[in-house]
Amino acid sequence: MSADISIQVTRDDASQAVERLIASVSPRALGEVIWPPALDLTRRHLAAYKNTKGFPSQGFGEQLANKTFGTATDQGAKLVVHGQGARALYEGATIKPVTKKMLCFGISASSYGKSLPEMFGGAIPPRDKRTPADKEKLKALRKLFAFAPSVTIKPHPDLIPTDDEYSAVAMRAIKGAIAGGFHA
Amino acid sequence: MADPLQQVLAELQRRGQLPRNISTAQMNALRRSIQRYSDYLSQDGIKKVVDKLTEGLKDAMNPQQVAGVTKGATEGSLRGELSNLINKFSTVEGLGQAINLDFILSTATSIMGGAARYLSDTTPQQIVLYPGWALSRMAQRDTPRGFREGKNGVLIPVPDDDWPSRWQEAGETCGDDKWVDWKGDAQTGEGVALKESAIWVTLGNLRDDSLGNAFPPFAYNSGFGVSPKSRAECIDLGLIDPGDTTKAPEFSLEKLINIPDLKKAA
Predict the structure, then answer these.
(1) A–B CB contacts, 8 A cutoff, strictly below
(2) 20 to 30 A from A175, CA-CA: which of A125, B2, B17, B145?
(3) Residue B91 in contact with partner chain A when CB distance is under 8 A
């Protein structure tokens, strides 16, 4: 003997609830939870970044922090450090002069972050128009600057927080969101 | 041809640096706000150059008798002063120093960054997930607010000027109770309020060094910023009840960025 069982759905409360639940844990929804604390972590980390030589800070890290933004995407969360020089410092790079023959950079606490004309007090006159005073000044300044055909910057992976730090922040954010009633 | 500023804003949206869910009208309002701000900065720079020249001329035209001695510029001294000034302006670096360009640019960049994060922080999703902000130190300063530098770099306290004092004053005058007292000390503590609280607008308009915005930096050369506070944290602090919903702060995109008086701190 066999029995025929037929099920007819007259009301479906479950599908909508399941769909809402799935949507609530979509990468974008989780990204909305994660990016604000991840952004905060990154900006504080950048703002505390110190140059390795210990020269007076030019505020580079803080400038990067000011140019750092976050958003949710279809893949999760995205942080953008939109500051010039950030990628070169993070990944490492070789910098070569484009319009001049040599690069010139400050190598002492007083010249660090400044240009040679800035320290000279104006545009440097051409060789044939330099006064003895100009020559003396330039001779003194040359001790504060180095010239090189190129400069290689080694990678600084510590420029941004570690993956572990991001994971910890993301987990804390998700737990916090659940505690605050984050659900479908 | 499309407006270049509009193109920049569209590009920022594409990169995720501005929220996508703002209408064309809101986008236009934001564009006008930024245009107004950048026009002001360029005009202010030119004005400073002219001011420096006219100050010298006024001084020469109006010598003052002080204790029997004539004080003020003479034709000769003025010629020397103006020559020095023109020499400074003959280089880009000199002109930059004369109009305090570094300061203007760094302040303007901070304000623009703060405005963009303010927009991202106040979307409907973010208001639900993170209804509050905490004000706390983000970057170190040699002379923090609440101090002034004395002889040999010694820090001398300036009562009532630090951020906890400003927080308290802003809270008491903002007209709502969507904020809690400052917790901790001036340098490592924090003040928490709902994003919808008027304390943020008040904080940006409290003192002579305020920049007039509802987002950080609230004052010139400030190292303080805001961090998100989750719904659970806001409930724990008593700022909202578990069943409560909060609103986005009210603001006009057209007036998002205040025109600051950069001369105050120059």
Answers:
(1) 92
(2) B17
(3) yes
Q: The tokens 């987990």 sit on which residue? A: A171
B231 shares contact with chain A (CB less than 8 Å): yes
Model confidence at A104, in pLDDT bands (50, 70, 90)? confident
Distance of residue A150 Cα from the nearest chain B Cα, in angstroms: 25
Rounded CA-CA distance A131/A146 in Å is 23
CB contact A24 to B (< 8 Å):
no
> Cβ contacts (< 8 Å) between B121 and chain A: which residues?
36
Phi, psi angle pair for B3, to nearest 5°: -60, 130
pLDDT one-digit tens code per residue, A157-169? 999 999 999 999 9
At residue A138, φ and ψ (nearest 5 deg) are -65, -35
Any CB–CB contact under 8 A between B121 and chain A? yes
Model-wide pTM > 0.80: no
Nearest beta carbon to residue B120 from set A33, A71, A182: A71
Cα distance between residue B181 and residue B190, in whole Å = 9
